[in-house]
Amino acid sequence: MRVAGAPISWGVSELPGWGYRMQPDRVLAEMRSLGLDATELGPPGFLPADSIACRDLLERHGMRVIAGFLAAVLHDPDANVLPAVEQEAKGLAAVGAEMLVLAAALPGDSYDRHQQLTRDAWRALTKTLAEAESMAAEFGLDLAFHPHAGTAVENRDQVERLMSSTNVGICLDTGHLHLGGTDPVRFAGEAGSRIRHVHLKDVDLDVAAGFRSRRLSYAEAVRQGLYRPLGKGGIDIEAVLKRVHQAGYQGWFVLEQDTALKDEPELSSGPVVAARQSLEYFRQIFSAKQHTTEANEEISKPRIKEESH
Question: What confidence tens digit (pLDDT) does each residue in 67-84 have?
């Protein structure tokens, strides 16, 4: 069971003005208290930029970094994003990560822009994405593209175009797919072996509708409880996991419920409570699925008939 935490579940975001940012010692300690031993990197400035200091901090808490997220303007050649991709890949490799998760950002510092790219912009996006894949590979990393709300690839048409025009691996994020109008269960079946990384979110459907209708900004929706602990929202997480399992997925499941905080939570309260609920739900489903698989394997074993005497 390869399950990891995410700093954004503790309110640690790459967006300016998002909210109060908890310190890494507490975030890592709370992840470890849940039984997690892996996390995503989080935004610049959260964990130490120096790889030795970062590894030391992680080791003190019995944790490791498995992936990192970068939103970059891939569709504009003038944006010159490849140096940022290289820096992120180099930093991830230095702390022992396996995966670079990349989203196609739109200019600005929020996830509230919505834009249809031109044919030339799509061509530039796919070219830059291929170059980013090669760059990640040079550092021993796999790359997973992340369809994400408020980016150049967020809605169903954009996701389908990306899938048909590239062979890139995919980060399946149940929440962001839903926000863009893509059924995550159906997509999990269609994407199959192209799924390289999984972000598990559950969603409050009413709040999600407010974001999709543009009544709420992304940050406002998060503050109003857009993301719920797994099993507490409207996404069929169990069906997603079934489809992913059928595709033979062997990667990480990241429990990621974006949260925005006003101040430091009291001890034994705050984001750790929701993270515990999500982990318990995930473990229940995983355990039940494992038992079902073992039972099916037992049933399928050939039986040797006893000789009659």
Answer: 999 999 999 999 999 999
Q: How far is CA 254 from CA 74, 211, 245, 271, 305, in A?
A: 24, 23, 15, 15, 46
* Residue burial 298-309, b: 16+ Cβ < 10 Å; e: rest: eeeeeeeeeeee
Nearest to 81 by CA among 68, 71, 72: 72
The letter for the amino acid at 178 is H
Alpha-carbon torsion (150, 156, 159, 161), positive or negative: negative
Architecture of domain 3-300: Alpha-Beta Barrel (3.20)
Identify residue 32 by its one-letter amino acid code: R
Cβ atoms of 158 and 180 closer than 8 Å: yes
Q: How confident is the model at residue 306 (pLDDT cuts 50, 70, 90)?
A: very low
Stated pTM of the model: 0.92
Closest CA to 90 of 141, 25, 131: 141
pLDDT of residue 1: 79
Contact partners, residue 236, CB within 8 Å, separation at least 6: 185
Query: Using 50, 70 and 90 to split pLDDT, how confident is the model at 308?
Result: very low
Q: Both tokens of residue 77? A: 């050649």
222 vs 207: CA distance, rounded Å: 8
